[in-house]
Write a structure and sequence with these properties.
The chain is an alpha/beta fold and about 425 residues long. The protein has two domains: about 1-225 and about 395-415, Aldehyde Dehydrogenase, Chain A, domain 1, CATH 3.40.605; about 230-380, 3-Layer(aba) Sandwich (Aldehyde Dehydrogenase, Chain A, domain 2). About 45% of the residues lie in helices and about 20% in strands. The protein contains 14 helices and 17 strands. The protein has helices at about 1-20, 25-45, 45-60, 65-70, 75-90, 130-140, 155-170, 190-195, 210-220, 240-255, 270-285, 295-300, 335-345, 355-365, and strands at about 100-105, 110-115, 120-125, 145-150, 180, 200-205, 220-225, 230-235, 260-270, 290, 310, 325-330, 350, 370-375, 390-395, 400-405, 410-415. The strands form four sheets. It has a seven-stranded parallel sheet, with helices on both faces. Strand 13 (about 350), helix 14 and strand 14 (about 370-375) form a beta-alpha-beta unit. Helix 5 (about 75-90) packs parallel to helix 6. The longest helix has 21 residues, at about 1-20. It starts with a helix and ends in a 7-residue tail after the last strand.
C-alpha cells in the first residue's frame, strides 16, 4: 500500500509541475496533440479492443449488471466515435485567454476578465473507459493537467487508452506529466487521493451514488459531481401523439443504460386513452417492462401481451438504467410539475406539448440542469451539445451545471491596466 501511495503522491507532484507549463502551451501544440491522440486511438484499435475484451469477459463472469457491461464495452464503432469526438474538441476555440468581460472605470483603469485553467483536475470514475479519453482531451485543450483513477473493472482498457494518450500527446509537445494514470486499483488509495488538495485543484467523480457521496463527503478540494439521472417526460394534453411516441421511445430505448435515458412518463388524463396504447405497443416491441399506476393499468388492460406491472412507490424517483420504465397518469400540468419536483434528480426533464403557455411554464419552473420541449432527453451529452465531449454532467449549481466541457473546467482572473492610478 505504501508503494501505491508513493506512486500517487509522485504522479500528483508531476501533474502539478506540468500544469504550470501547460497553462501557457500554445493552442497549435494542444490541437496537434489532440489530432495525434485521435489518430493513435484508431492505429491502436486492435490492442485497445483486445484489452477491453479481457475486462469485459472478467466483468461478465463476476456477475456485473447488463447496464454496467454496456458502459464497459468498446467496439470499433464506439472507438471511432471517441476518436471523432477528440477531433471535435480540437476544432473548438481554445478557452484559455478568452476575454469574458472588459470595461474602463471612471478613474481610467481598464478591467478585463480572462479565462485561465484550473490547474490539476482529478477524476475518479467507474466502468466507462471512454471517460479516460474524454476527460484527458478536455483537460489538455483547456490547459489543465489531469490525474485519472479508473475502476478495476476497466483497468486494462483504461491503461491501454492512457498509454496511447500519453505517448501521442507528449510526442506532439504537451509537457511531460500532464496526463497521469494511477495504476493501483486499491480502493483505499481513493481516500489518499482526496487528501491531496495541495496538488489537485478540482475533483470530479463519475460513477454510482455511493462513489459520488464518498467523494463529496471526504474530498479536501473542490468537487463537481453529477448525481443519478431520474429523467421524466410529461405528455401534455395538447401533445402531438406521433411526436410524443417517437420522443418517449427514443428517450427510453435508444440506449437505456445511460444517465439521460427516460425513466418515467407522465401523461395528462385527457390524452392518456389515445396515447398510452400506442406508446405501450412500441415499447413492448423493444422489450420494455412497464411499471404502471392504476389509471394506466386500466387503459392498457385491453392491449394484450404487454409486460406491465403495478407500480410501487420505489418506482417513482428510480433510475432504472435498463429497459424498464414507470408510467403515471396525471390530472394537470401542475401535478406533473409537483411529481418532477418531488422525484426528479435535477438532471434532464422534458415536456411534449403544442401549447406555448404549458411549454413556457415547464421550461421556467422545472429545476433541472437540462429542460426540454418536444425533444428527447438523450441529447444531454457534451458531444450532442457541440462540446465535443464532456468531463461529466453536473446536477449541482456551483460552479457548473449540465454537460461540462472546456469552458466549465476553467476559471478566470482579473487583469487591470492602469497609468499610475492610486486609490484616494
Amino acid at each position: 500500500m505504501q508503494a501505491d501511495i508513493n506512486e500517487l503522491v509522485e504522479k500528483a507532484r508531476q501533474a502539478k509541475a506540468a500544469s504550470k507549463k501547460l497553462a501557457f502551451t500554445p493552442t497549435k501544440v494542444k490541437n496537434d496533440a489532440l489530432a495525434a491522440i485521435a489518430q493513435a486511438l484508431l492505429d491502436r484499435e486492435d490492442m485497445i479492443l483486445h484489452n477491453n475484451q479481457k475486462d469485459y469477459k472478467e466483468a461478465e463472469a463476476s456477475g456485473m449488471s447488463e447496464a454496467m457491461l454496456d458502459r464497459l464495452m468498446l467496439n470499433s464503432s464506439r472507438l471511432k466515435g471517441i476518436s471523432d469526438d477528440v477531433k471535435i474538441v480540437a476544432a473548438l476555440p481554445d478557452p484559455v485567454g478568452e476575454v469574458i468581460e472588459e470595461r474602463t472605470l471612471p478613474n481610467g483603469l481598464l478591467l478585463s476578465k480572462r479565462r485561465v485553467p484550473l490547474g490539476v483536475i482529478g477524476a475518479i470514475y467507474e466502468s466507462r473507459p471512454n471517460v479516460t479519453v474524454d476527460i484527458s482531451v478536455l483537460c489538455l485543450k483547456s490547459g489543465n493537467a489531469v490525474i485519472l483513477r479508473g475502476g478495476k473493472e476497466a483497468y486494462r482498457s483504461n491503461l491501454a487508452l492512457a498509454n496511447t494518450i500519453q505517448e501521442a500527446a507528449y510526442k506532439a509537445g504537451i509537457p511531460s506529466g500532464a496526463v497521469q494514470f494511477i495504476e493501483s486499483t486499491d480502493r483505499g488509495l481513493v481516500d489518499n487521493m482526496l487528501k491531496l488538495k495541495e496538488s489537485i485543484d478540482l475533483m470530479i467523480p463519475r460513477g454510482g451514488a455511493a462513489l459520488i457521496k464518498f467523494v463529496k463527503d471526504n474530498a479536501s478540494m473542490a468537487v463537481v459531481a453529477g448525481g443519478i439521472g431520474v429523467c421524466h417526460a410529461y405528455v401534455d394534453k395538447t401533445a402531438d401523439i406521433a411526436k410524443a411516441v417517437a420522443i418517449t421511445y427514443n428517450a427510453k430505448v435508444q440506449r437505456p443504460t445511460v444517465c439521460n435515458a427516460l425513466d418515467c412518463v407522465l401523461v395528462h388524463k385527457d390524452i392518456a386513452a389515445a396515447f398510452l396504447p400506442v406508446m405501450a405497443k412500441e415499447w413492448d416491441k423493444a422489450g420494455v417492462e412497464m411499471h404502471c399506476d392504476q389509471r394506466t393499468l386500466e387503459i392498457l388492460k385491453s392491449v394484450h401481451g404487454l409486460n406491465v406491472h403495478p407500480a410501487v412507490e420505489d418506482d417513482w424517483g428510480k433510475e432504472f438504467l435498463a429497459l424498464v420504465g414507470a408510467i403515471k397518469v396525471v390530472g394537470s400540468l401542475d401535478e406533473a410539475l409537483e411529481h418532477i419536483e418531488h422525484y426528479g434528480s435535477g438532471h434532464s426533464e422534458a415536456i411534449i406539448s403544442e401549447d406555448k403557455n404549458s411549454i413556457d411554464r415547464f421550461l421556467n419552473e422545472v429545476d433541472a440542469a437540462c429542460v426540454y420541449a418536444n425533444a428527447s432527453t438523450r441529447f444531454t451529452d457534451g458531444s450532442q451539445f457541440g462540446m465535443g465531449a464532456e468531463i461529466g454532467i453536473s446536477t449541482q449549481k456551483f460552479h457548473a451545471r449540465g454537460p461540462m466541457a472546456l469552458r466549465e473546467i476553467t476559471s478566470y482572473k482579473w487583469c487591470i491596466r492602469g497609468n499610475g492610478q492610486v486609490r484616494p
